[in-house]
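re: that complex we talked abt at group meeting.

here r the seqs, copy pasted straight from the sheet so there may be weird spacing, ignore it
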Amino acid sequence: MINRRYAWLLLALGAVLLVSCVVSLGFGPARVPVDVVWRILLHKLFGFGEVNWSAGQEHIVWLIRVPRMLLGALVGAGLALIGAVLQAVTRNPLADPHLLGVTSGATLGAVIVVLHVGEIVGLLTLPIAAFIGALLSMLLVLGIANRQGRLDSDRLLLCGVAVSFVMMAIANLLLFMGDHRASSAVMFWMLGGLGLARWELLTVPALSVLLGLVLLLGMARPLNGLMAGEQTAVTLGLNARTVRLRVFVIASLMTGVLVSISGSIGFVGLMVPHIARRLIGAEHRRLLPVCVLLGSVFLVWVDVAARTLIAPEDLPIGVATAALGGLFFIGLMRRK
Amino acid sequence: MTTLTLDTLAWTPLGHDHGHCHHQFQLRDASLHVAAEEFVGLIGPNGSGKTSLLRCAYRFSRPEHGEVRFDHHNVWKQSSRWCAQRIAVVLQEFPDAFGLTVEEVVAMGRTPHKGLFDGDTHEDRRLATQALQSVGLQGFEDHAFATLSGGEKQRVILARALTQQPQLLILDEPTNHLDPRYQLELLQLVRQLKIGTLASIHDLNLAAAFCDRLYVIDHGRIVASGTPRQVLTVELLREVFGVEALIDTHPLHDYPRITWITRP
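got the structure back, here u go
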């Protein structure tokens, strides 16, 4: 019974995602009629139809909105996935990608580069610096949490939070003392945004989300076991420490990749898994695909809000996710 | 023949100094043996080290001295997966954090027999259904585990252990939270399985009724062992448990019956 329900849910969410992706392309500060969007898409994807639109419209749809929509879907999917598995291995419903310390490491990397190094490798400088920061803070968290050969979930979370605070303190200090114009660039990145999306930047996040999904789906049984508790996991033949370490490294690398391009986007990783669990339950082989679809749909639409609410300005998407997501969740809680 | 042997185990809980801990939960020179198809009970007062001993037996806590052997294999020379393929455990820990269905909890028992990326086979599902049937919970597959009563949860966890197809079963106070009917049903069920079983049991009359042999643990030491009739004496109950009791024979069966003497 639950399998049939799952199949329908997956199908429905897949359809919603597909429709969302196409429809969301019609929104934005510049007006492009929906039928033009359709025709541009069909022409670009399948070579259908005649070109009867301006080069500007094609540029906006194909080079700006499509990659941005795709990045939104990828980031939403990735963050939701990471949130779900972190909550399982730490048995903490409040765990989310940002508690790992990875995001603040990325922020510190970005701040240092923007304020003190400059764009040495062009547009990619900020993402690369952020990723290096993320990687270093992951190693730092693991190094501290792993003392005495133990790696329990409380220690991991506490170390993540502690490293996070130290990293943010340094980043904020640098920002406070630094040049204000550079600060606002960093600030925008810190609040999250998909404005950096370009076709050539999509490969790495796409691969990392795909690889992460496949690996974590393969670990679905261990994830279920760990969710049941440390001792139960051991009696089921799982090495809790190894599973936790693997999940943590996969989650950190994915977070690093996503955050380095989109900045820190809150809420998605924390709340989407909870909503997904309400829909399909906590069993991970079913939960993870649902999280991926739900996270993508969610972020695609939040980005629509982000670029239309105060158009022509871009609202930082982190602000939008937090506000909309928080309200949505409160509504959901009250209804239940 | 599958047997479990605990050989002169010593174990101290983490974070306790030898100097000023109250020797609670500690193990000293504890030895114990479970033969194939034997139902062995572990009894002792609170804090005597029952749970510590069981944790050593199912390869959760690593003893500082001594050895845990399963079929002449030192369990610490084998993987936890190896052990889980042979030993199933019913704990008092329930996976209710995020909401799994009964079927999903029971299916977890297949974990030690599965590699990464392995799906559920027909055989896996058959084992899970069979296990649910044998604990009397068929038809509960789609219920949320968290909504069950304590007794039902306990039986689901037993079904999960059965799905593991173990050669030995370890139970940590399996009759806690159960009303008399399910206490009896659960222990009867376990005894019918005809696999080696080691269970810590609080209720001494239940222990007397169901166990082939008993071990008594006190302050981390095994202080007595043998058949219920050999072990359960007025003197032992007074010394180890600090209670007065009358002991006679169950009117219908051939095992000892304990009657507590309470002050008026």
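couple things i noticed - Chain B has nine helices and twelve strands. The CA atoms of residues 249 and 256 of chain B lie 4 Å apart.
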